[in-house]
Amino acid sequence: MAKVVTYEELKANNTKESLYVLLHEKVYDVTKFIDEHPGGDEVILAEAGKDATDAFEDVGHSDEARDLLPGMLIGEFEKDSKLKLSSSKPTTPNPVVHNAVETGSNMMYFIPLALLGGYFAWRFYGA
Length: 127
Description:
The structure is a single chain. The chain is α+β, with helices and mostly antiparallel strands. It has a five-stranded mixed sheet with strand order 1-5-4-3-2.
C-alpha cells in the first residue's frame, strides 16, 4: 500500500534540503533533482507546500521529464486535506488547438522556403 502524505508533511518539506511537490494528487520528493532542474530551483521552490499541478502542466513538460516522476514518488496525497487540489487528470490537448498548431507549424516551414525559392528564381532569371 502506498504511503499517504498529509498536508502538514507537504508543508514541512518545503526547503532545498527536503522538498516535496504535489502533482496530480501524488507527492514527489524532488530534493535530489532540484539542482538539475532546467528552470532553476526557484521555480520548484515557489510551488512548495501547495498543489503544483497547474504550474507543472502550464509549462508543458516533456515526456522525459514525466518519466522521471515515478522514481521520485513518495505516495498519495491525503484526500481530506485543507489544501484545495487542482484537476486530478492531466490536461489533454484540445483537438482544434492541436490542429491549428500543426497547421501553423507547417506554414512556419512553407513560407520561408517559398520566399527563398522566389528569391533564387528572381536572381537566376532576373539577372
